Amino acid sequence: MARFMTLAEAMKETLSDGDSVAFEGFTHLIPHAAAHEAIRQGKTDLTLIRMTPDVIYDQMIGMGMARRLVFSYAGNPGVGLLRRLRDAVENGWPRKLEIEEHSHAAMANAYEAGASGLPMAVFRGYKGAGLAKVNPNIKSVTCPFTGEVLAAVPALRPDLGVIHAQKANRQGDVLIEGIVGVQKEVVLAAKRSVVTVEEVVEDFADVHPNACVLPRWTISAIAVVPGGAHPSYAQGYYGRDNPSYLEWDGIAADRDRFRAWMETNVLQAKPEDFADRVAMLEKRP
Amino acid sequence: MTTPSFSRDEMMTIAAARALGNDDVCFVGIGAPSAACNVARLTHAPNITLIYESGTIGTAPSVLPLSIGDGELCETAVTTVSVPEMFRYWLQGGRVTIGFLGAAQLDRFGNINTTVIGDYDTPTVRLPGGGGAPEIASSCGRIFITMKQSRRGMVETIDFVTSFGHGTGQGDRRALGLDTRGPTLLITDLAIWKSDPETGEFVVSSLHPGATRQAVVETCGWTARFADAVEDTPAPSELELTTLRDLKARTAKAHGASGGSDS
Questions:
Q1: CA atoms of A111 and A108, how far apart (whole Å)
Q2: What tens digit of pLDDT does each residue of B98-139 get?
Q3: Quick one: pLDDT at residue B258?
Q4: Pairing assessment for the beta strands A66-71 and B183-187 based on DSSP bridges
Q5: Residue B40: which of B105, B120, B100 has the closest Cα?
Q6: Residue at A112 is within a domain
Q7: Are strands B116-118 and B112-113 parallel, antiparallel or unpaired?
Q8: How many structural domains is chain B composed of?
Q9: Where in the sequence numbering do the catalytic residues of B fall?
Q10: What CATH number is associated with residue A271?
Q11: Is the pLDDT of residue A36 over 90?
């Protein structure tokens, strides 16, 4: 049952060294504040799972927190490559990083399989694709009805799933709007879950009956962190801070500059700082 | 009437836009494909359905998105679905007629590498990876590819097959059980290439204004083949150029930099 707590309490209670954890968000609603809290708490030996590891995973990998990365697209969207991730993969800095690489279709299906309580996902994919040759977790099954050979990957069942969402009501139900990505699937697939929200409202009486709502009993902890997705965005609250993504490319290009930036903006910062970071951004309808 | 002057980049985007029609349902890759798809929508194909892998179906952004999940894609879409639904019902379900992709490395058979330069386990350059592309390449009716010509990009052998094109030639798709057509069109900054129905190879079918056979050969890492009758790509019209430039200007203003460019 969802319990409201501070972000520091939520991460301390749900995330342990060595865990597999997915901080999800498909461009939208990326839980930056929660990832920064995990960085401040110095969690280590993590298996990081994410379809689109971008800036927060670049930061966590650069801080040496990750042992392994499971992913399907590792780029800074619209900008280029992730330089801390590259340094880890190409040079083993600050530590060696194991990778398990998939396609988006595989990851999305694997989350859905995890949420469905299935051991694996079956889909039509990886035909002729090189990943099937380098990733031993990509296998095939033959349809018992038609004989068609289909791709199979293990279900994703992270120890912890972390997402950002627009709002919770006082009972702890959570509403996700806009590009919903795999936010619902990762919470339902994970053993434990943390949701950061922009705000808490009295009730969801005005919410459309088909809206994407996670009932309170599917969530472990909720922390109210206004601006908690920045520089990602929260539809209805603030837009994507594209200049920050462009700026990250330069920060991450240099190990010393990266460390200094992390010290100032993450290690010495607090969850409350996120509200200031989005204050100047355009409010999106 | 004077012919407006234009860059090679602009010609590439406009030639790519012309390949799209009103009835197409197009899965849009970010970067150059996104610009081409939106120029098509803003000129001759107002009813084209553009799909971005973030789940936005029938989207009509006023500026080019920096990422595949920018808010405006959702705000202007007919509907926004979850990412598992996007890949299962819409892409795997066979509802997308064209997949429009870019490439870091490409071979003559339309196989694409966006994964690594060098060896997979010890790469020289670790690229972002495939994202949606491996299944876009297999599930869409046809694949269009757009990229600038260079010997680094258009190579004899790609380092990693991220997305399967025609393999080593016509027949390889069928052997894998694929009944979609695969790459049929390559639009570069110099030419339009079509895949040869016999061999699966890209063959130059049209040269852009000012582009020469020699320039095409010199900027291509494989031995370029030319169709028996190579056509001349018509120069961009005033409308096409104005539409593209306005779109780029709105995009730059919105993103606070030269947004909507690469990857």
A1: 5
A2: 999 999 999 999 999 999 999 999 999 999 999 999 999 999
A3: 42
A4: unpaired
A5: B100
A6: no
A7: unpaired
A8: 1
A9: 53
A10: 3.40.1080.10
A11: yes
Is B263 within a domain?
A: no
Kindly report the backbone phi and psi dihedral angles of residue A76, in degrees, each rounded to the nearest multiple of 5, phi listed first. Answer: -95, 105
Q: Domain count for chain A, please give it.
A: 1
pLDDT at B263: 32
Is residue A89 a part of any domain in this protein? no
Domain at B157, CATH number? 3.40.1080.10
**B223 contact partners, CB below 8 Å, separation of at least 6:** none
Inter-chain contacts counted by CB atoms under 8 A, chains A and B: 201
Q: A214 CB contacts (<8 Å, ≥6 apart)?
A: A165, A173, A174, A176, A184, A187, A188, A195
Residue A57 lies in a domain: yes
Domain-located, residue B178: yes
Residue B26 is classified by DSSP as E
B52-87 pLDDT tens trace: 999 999 999 999 988 888 889 999 999 999 999 999
- Is A68 contained in some domain? yes
CA-CA-CA-CA torsion sign (A242, A247, A249, A255): negative
B120, B128, B135: residue with CB nearest A103: B135
Beta strands B112-113 and A212-214: pairing type? Answer: unpaired
Element (H or E) spanning A55, and its range?
helix A55-62
Contacts of B105 in chain A (CB under 8 A): none
CA dihedral defined by B5, B8, B9, B15, rounded to 10 degrees?
Answer: 90
Q: Print the domain residue range for A196.
A: 3-72+157-279
> What residue numbers bound the domain in which B22 lies?
8-255
Q: At what angle do helices A55-62 and A83-91 cross, to 10 degrees?
A: 40
B262 within domain boundaries:
no
Cα–Cα nearest to B148, from B191, B204, B117, B203 = B191
- Residues on chain B touching A284 (C-beta within 8 angstroms): 71, 75
8 A C-beta contact, residue A170 and residue A197: no
